[in-house]
Amino acid sequence: MDAIEVRGLVVERGGRRVLHGIDCTVPTGSVTGLLGPSGGGKSTLLRAIVGVQRVAGGTVTVLGTPAGSAKLRHQVGYVTQAPSVYRDLTARGNARYFAAVAGVPPAAADEALRDVGLSGQADALVGRMSGGQAARVSLACALLGRPRLLVLDEPTVGLDPVLRRDLWALFGELAAAGTTLLISSHVMDEAGRCERLLLLRDGRIIADDTPAEILRSTGRDDLEGAFLRLIELSEGATTARTATGNPVTGTTTGVAR
Amino acid sequence: MTTRPMLATAARVLSQLRHDRRTVALLLVVPVALLILFKYVYQSAPPVFDRVGPIMLGLFPFVTMFLVTSIAMVRERTSGTLERLLTTPLRKFDLLAGYALAFGVLGLAQAGIAAAVALGPLGLTVSAGPAVVVTLAVINALLGMALGLFLSAFASTEFQAVQFLPAAVLPQVLLCGLLAPPEQMGVALRWASDVLPLTYAVDALTEARTASTVTAAMTADGLIVIGCIVAALALGAATLRRRTP
C-alpha cells in the first residue's frame, strides 16, 4: 500500500498556479526524496500532504484517509523549512511541550533530543542556538510519538557533513522500523540516499522513480547530470511537443508530463 | 478527553514569559508605578484618585494582556508554530484555554500586586472589598487576552499588532466611563459605549467602590463581560484555520 497518493493536485497561491495537476505516490516504509530547485513547489506539495495547504483541485490521500483528517494528526510528523519551535524555550521545553500535545510521556522528549544528537544542549534556549541546532530541535519535536509518516522540508540545510550523515542514518533506521519518510532537499548528493525520488520543477513532477532507474534511463552516471537531462527532456516535451513519446524509457511511472 | 494539552499550553506560555524576565517585571511593576504617579499628580484633588483608582486597577490587566497576547499570537503565526500545532492532535479549545489560563494567572498576579499597593499604602478604599476588585481585574485581563487573540489574526507583523492598541483599545478606554460618565455623552457615543465590553467592566468597578457587597448590577456587568470574552474567543477560534492559502 502507498503511504501517500496524490492525484491531479492543483494548488494556486496568490492567484498563481504553483502545482499543475500533480500525480505521485510514496510507498510505505520508504525514504522518498522530493528534489528540485527552490520555488518549484516542493514546500507547497508537502503542505498539501500534511493538510495545511488550501488546494484548488485533485486529491491527496495519506495512510488511506484524506490529507488533513483528524485521525492523521496522531500519525503524521511535519517539519517546516524554518524551524517551527519556540525560540524563547529550551530545546527540552519545546520537546516536552510537543510531547504533551502529542500525548506521549515526557521521557519521549529526551529520547527524541538524543535521536537528533542534542542531549548535551537540551537546556539551551533555542533562540541562542545555531540555525542547524534549532532545525534539529524542530525535527526532534516531529519524531515524538513515532508517527507513521514523517514529512520533512529540507531538514539538513546548514548542517555539517557529519551531522547530515548521522541524520540520514536515523532516517534509514526509522524507515527500517516501518516509518515512511518524505524528505525534500535541493542538495543532489542527498538524493542518492533515498530509495525513491520525486523530481519537481515548475510545479510539475518530471521524474518519479528509484535513483538507479533514473540514472539508467537517462544514461548518466550521476544524479545531477540525470536531473539536467530530465529537465532538458521535459522542456523539450512542453515547448516542442515532440511526438517521441515518453522520453524516459523502460519505466511505467518514469515521467509524468 | 484530557486536560494535559491545555495545561501544557498554559505552562508553555508562562515558561516563555519566564525566560523574558524584563517583560514580567514590567508587567508587574509598571501598574504600581503608574498608580503612585497618578495618586501624586492629583494630590491636590484626592477625590479624583478615589474615583479613578479602582477603574485603573481594572484597566491595566486589560491593556497589557491585550498587547502581550496579540504579539504572542502574531509570533505563533509567523514562526510556523501555530501551523505545526494545528497538524498535531491539539484541539483549538486546548490552545485557547491554555492561553486563557496562562494570562489569567498573570492577570491575577498583576492585579493582586497593584491592588495590594493601591488599597494599602496609597489608601484607596473600595467598599466591596479587594477580592471583588481583583476578580473584576482578572476578568478584564481575560477580556484583553481574548480581544488580542482575535485581532492578532488581522496583523501580519508585530508592528501592526502594536498599532491595534490605539485602534482597538484606546477608543474603549475613552468611551468606557473613565474620563466622563457615558450618560453625559452624545447619543451616538452613548450607543458606542453601550456595545463596548470595557464599559461594563468599568461600570462594575465603579459600583464596587461604593457598594458594600456584590450587587446584582455588578454581577450582570461581570456576566456581560464574560459573554464578550467567550464571543471573542469563539471568533478567535474561527481565525485559527488549519488550511491556509
Describe the structure.
The complex is a heterodimer of chains A (257) and B (245). With 257 residues, chain A is α/β, with parallel strands linked by helices. Chain A folds into 2 domains: 1-75 and 148-158 and 170-257, 3-Layer(aba) Sandwich (Rossmann fold), CATH 3.40.50.300; 85-146, no CATH class. Chain A has helices at 42-50, 91-102, 106-115, 131-143, 161-176, 188-191, 211-218, 223-240, and strands at residues 2-13, 16-27, 31-35, 57-62, 65-66, 76-79, 149-153, 180-185, 196-201, 204-209. In chain A, strands 6-7-8-3-9-10 form a 6-stranded mixed β-sheet, with helices on both faces. Chain A has a 4-stranded antiparallel β-sheet with strand order 2-1-4-5, covered by helices on one side. In chain A, a hairpin with a 2-residue loop joins β9 (196-201) and β10. Chain A starts with a strand and ends in a 17-residue tail after the last helix. Mean pLDDT of chain A is 87; it is low at 240-257. Chain B has 245 residues and is mostly helical. Chain B has one domain. Chain B contains 10 helices and no strands. Chain B has helices spanning 4-18, 21-41, 46-79, 81-86, 92-119, 130-151, 158-175, 187-195, 197-210, 216-239. In chain B, α3 packs antiparallel against α9 (197-210) and α6 runs parallel beside α10. The mean pLDDT of chain B is 89. The A-B interface holds A 13-14, 50-54, 68, 73-74, 76, 78, 80, 82-89, 93, 96-98, 100-103, 125, 141 and B 2, 4-5, 7-9, 11-12, 15-16, 19-20, 79-81, 83-90, 242-245.
